[in-house]
Amino acid sequence: MSFTQLQTLTARLNQLDAQGLRRIRHEVESVCQPHLMVDVQTLLAFNSNDYLGLAAHPLVVEALREGASLYGAGSGASHLISGHSQAHERLEELLGMLLSPFVPSVRALTFSTGYMANLGVMTALTDTAKGDITFFSDALNHASLIDGIRLTRESCHVYAHADVSDLSLKLSSCHSGTKVVVTDGVFSMDGDIAPLKEMLALCDQHGAWLLVDDAHGFGVLGETGAGVLQYFNLRSEQLIYMGTLGKAAGVSGAFVAAHEDVIEWMVQRSRPYIYTTASAPALAHALLTSLRLISGDEGRRSRAYLQTLIQQLSTAPIPANWQRMVSTTAIQPLVIGSNAQVLQASADLKAQGIWISAIRAPTVPVNTARLRITLSASHTAQDVDRLVRALSFESIS
């Protein structure tokens, strides 16, 4: 790198500082839980996606230890070489069982991350269509969905957020052989839920796939935690479902569940699956315990308790110049406006011992910077009361 190029990078970093857009990492010195030691300060955190409190659950932690004892620290190779362990196979079988009521002839395929899963499914679908494919993407979709579509270099129509009428118009005007509607299940920065029942009806009408990224719904929504498909009681072979395993499931990784032929095609053609080392089998082994907790009585109790916390926070007063997003999920954002305002609000809360991340553009649209509050079943009602009192302080403005 030449000196001139380094000067350019330094100038761009300074520009990020001036715009209040530089991202900063914080060093967490304790297990994932509401009360954390962060940068040598004890904080009450409301910014984790550990919605059911399973990341530190004793049974999950013990299962991870057991998995390391059984399988070692790593997989050693990609799934198609020698890295596909018995633990991976059992995890995929269990995921397929959980999703079987919603996708006929379902099969599941695990990935190291949700980002890789979305890139993998998008590019594999494109490989079947030989250029005759069009994507339809919600305006507020997650970056991994957007990047997956970009990677295909195929046509994409962006429809207005959760707007079924706009999606219908765009589908009707498209004459591609393969159509793929792509949406978050629960939108990560707003907390609202996509109108999937109406969207699936449209996909059925137009012969389109419906690809749902349910990173923030799997484990949390539905009677047994099976996510948005269970929440809406959907069933179709046109559904392609992506769920993550590092949020409500409390461990790491992701999966795609779809008709068995879709999954087999991904095994053959999904480059993010084929050309990467398989995740540690110990993680898959721990997830077997995590998923059983999610679908059992403990998971039901945690989801019910989480709903009481959501109700407690969503009805509490907030500063008059802030906007509460309409959300019935564990994601409860408060829109403040400018980058400077949200950074100040976050700093004011941190001074009171409460940690909520300031979310800014490009993660959210310009001038909609927000505090993204996330609740967990491991929070207490007293924790939420403390947050409500902190939000009412005059210093938060």
Keywords:
single chain, 15 helices, alpha/beta, Aspartate Aminotransferase, domain 2, Aspartate Aminotransferase, domain 1, 43% helix
What's the structural blueprint in terms of helices and strands?
Layout: H1 3-18, E1 35-38, E2 41-45, H2 58-71, H3 79-83, H4 86-99, E3 106-111, H5 114-129, E4 133-138, H6 143-152, E5 155-159, H7 164-172, E6 178-184, H8 196-206, E7 209-213, H9 228-231, E8 239-244, E9 254-259, H10 260-269, H11 271-274, H12 281-295, H13 297-314, E10 323-324, E11 331-337, H14 339-351, E12 354-355, E13 358-359, E14 369-374, H15 381-391
Parallel strand pairs: 2-12, 4-5, 4-6, 6-7, 7-8
Antiparallel strand pairs: 1-2, 3-9, 8-9, 10-11, 11-14, 13-14
How would you sum up this structure, described in words?
The radius of gyration is 21 Å and the shape is globular. The termini are far apart. The longest helix is centred in the C-terminal third of the chain and has 18 residues, at 297-314. With 397 residues, it is α/β, with parallel strands linked by helices. Helices cover 43% and strands 17% of the residues. A seven-stranded mixed β-sheet has the order 3-9-8-7-6-4-5, with helices on both faces. The protein folds into two domains: 21-50 and 297-391, Aspartate Aminotransferase, domain 1 (Alpha-Beta Complex), CATH 3.90.1150.10; 58-295, Type I PLP-dependent aspartate aminotransferase-like (Major domain) (Aspartate Aminotransferase, domain 2).
